[in-house]
Amino acid sequence: MTLFHHPFSRAATVLWMLEELDVPYTVEHVDIMTGANKSPEFLALNTMGKLPTLVDGETIVTETAAIGMYLADRYSSGTLAPALDDPARGTYLRWICYGPSVIEPCAYARASQWDYKPASAGWGTWESMHETVEAAIGDGPYLLGDRFTMADVCFGATVRFMMQFNMIEKRPAFEAYVARLNERPANRKAEAINHASIEAHGLGK
Asked: CATH assignment of 89-184?
């Protein structure tokens, strides 16, 4: 597999996914600062010209949640992804999609002071989004209780990013959940790879 990556993109989350799976992969740096993601070669892989983009043999997958679902189903079915006949599968799918479909647009709507009707928007209200995130975390330690899944990577990375930039509230339950995720060895290794990329490409200056 090849992950097209830039350390300041959501591809950093996919690094964490790959490390949780412990499967062989390579990383190809895409210089989004100079527009390399808009080159004809890259647009042939992803017409959006965005990261992350994952190539696994003849399969091309884009969008962070889709990549997470693909990787977990193909390489960790029954572990990082509940099996198709597992009753937990519905909850898993709900939360793996919740970050990009609810948390992100709700946070951006708030930051940009969008005038919208919550009943017409897929992300609802600021208050209900926060209450839902807290309810999803519950007693933890993970979204499926004691069971860590790829949903925690997608959901958790979104919560962490939004708190880091003060785009959602820093509730105690959110901070405790993110702290638990940060301690995972795969997350630590992914962070190290990301920081090494920053240094290698002079992005920390």
From this structure: 1.20.1050.10
